[in-house]
């Protein structure tokens, strides 16, 4: 079988693409699906954890509320530190195989892949969201409370829309990381891009050629996503220059927009 493989490097690459191109594409599709879904769910988890971690606790609150919030924050902090402080590969082994041996839970390979990437991303996003919330001027929170808004209303209507723009680069960074880090899920049998490349390489012992193809595909995926996210950030920034609406009577009376002199019948 190996005698039919071309002798030159580019010839072997073309040979692998012709014979196993569909396998590479399927692996790339699985990689993107896991990365996108895991990042999306991880962002939802991160926003929820970040908001809860920033709930203020004062002495005026009742003792049960303070104890409850303190316990919840300790649990969430433990979750964040645990998943930020251990490799995703170890987490995959622990969750996928540990759930079977300890709790008799037989996770499907696909559910485990989505679950692992999601909770891992959620831990990183929680700290990002917390930092984004704290970066907003505290006066805006005080102003919202002064007009009677609850903490939830303040977060959803005032703070988070501004914090979202600040943390958009980190959201994109997490997506790029997840595209690359899905390769560790091959350890639990997930047939993503790395697994496909490894299988193709082992067939003809063309490791250099197969992983060259995989490297190019990874780069195309990450570069495309980074350009799209950069475009989204630019759209969120809005135009560079803003003009006050000339129909606003307040701006007209301030002298910024002169009144048009009305013609009367005597003119």
TrEMBL record:
SUPFAM superfamilies: MetI-like
Membrane-traversing stretches: 24-53, 74-97, 109-126, 175-195, 207-229
Compartments where located: Cell membrane
Entry keyword Metal-binding: no
GO biological-process terms attached to the record: amino acid transport
Protein keywords: Amino-acid transport, Cell membrane, Membrane, Transmembrane, Transmembrane helix, Transport
Record GO cellular component, one term: ATP-binding cassette (ABC) transporter complex
Coiled coil (UniProt feature): none
Membrane topology: Multi-pass membrane protein
Domain of life: Bacteria
Annotated ranges, domain ABC transmembrane type-1: 28-229
Entry annotated with the keyword Transmembrane helix: yes
CDD domains: TM_PBP2
Record-level Gene Ontology MF annotations: transmembrane transporter activity
NCBIfam families: HEQRo_perm_3TM
PANTHER family per record: GLUTAMINE TRANSPORT SYSTEM PERMEASE PROTEIN GLNP (PTHR30614:SF20), MEMBRANE COMPONENT OF AMINO ACID ABC TRANSPORTER (PTHR30614)
Family: Belongs to the binding-protein-dependent transport system permease family. HisMQ subfamily.
UniProt name for this protein: ABC transporter, permease protein
Organism: Marvinbryantia formatexigens DSM 14469
């Amino acid at each position: 079988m190996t005698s039919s493989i071309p002798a030159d490097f580019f010839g072997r690459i073309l040979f692998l693409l012709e014979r196993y191109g569909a396998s590479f594409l399927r692996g790339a599709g699985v990689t993107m699906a896991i990365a996108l879904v895991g990042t999306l769910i991880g962002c939802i988890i991160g926003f929820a954890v970040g908001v809860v971690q920033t709930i203020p606790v004062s002495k005026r609150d009742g003792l049960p509320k303070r104890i409850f919030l303190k316990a919840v924050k300790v649990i969430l902090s433990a979750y964040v530190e645990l998943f930020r402080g251990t490799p995703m590969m170890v987490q995959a082994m622990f969750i996928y195989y540990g759930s079977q041996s300890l709790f008799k839970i037989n996770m499907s390979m696909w559910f485990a892949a989505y679950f692992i990437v999601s909770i891992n991303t959620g831990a990183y996003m929680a700290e990002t969201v917390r930092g984004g919330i704290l970066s907003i001027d505290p006066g805006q929170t005080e102003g919202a409370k002064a007009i009677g808004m609850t903490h939830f209303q303040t977060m959803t209507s005032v703070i988070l829309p501004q914090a979202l723009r600040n943390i958009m680069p980190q959201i994109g960074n997490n997506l790029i990381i997840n595209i690359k880090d899905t390769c560790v899920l091959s350890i639990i049998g997930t047939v993503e891009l790395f697994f496909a490349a490894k299988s193709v390489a082992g067939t003809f012992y063309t490791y250099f050629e197969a992983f060259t193809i995989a490297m190019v595909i990874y780069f195309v995926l990450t570069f495309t996503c980074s350009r799209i996210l950069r475009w989204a950030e630019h759209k969120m920034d809005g135009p560079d220059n803003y003009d006050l609406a000339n129909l606003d009577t307040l701006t007209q009376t301030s002298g910024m927009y002169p009144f048009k002199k009305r013609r009367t019948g005597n003119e």
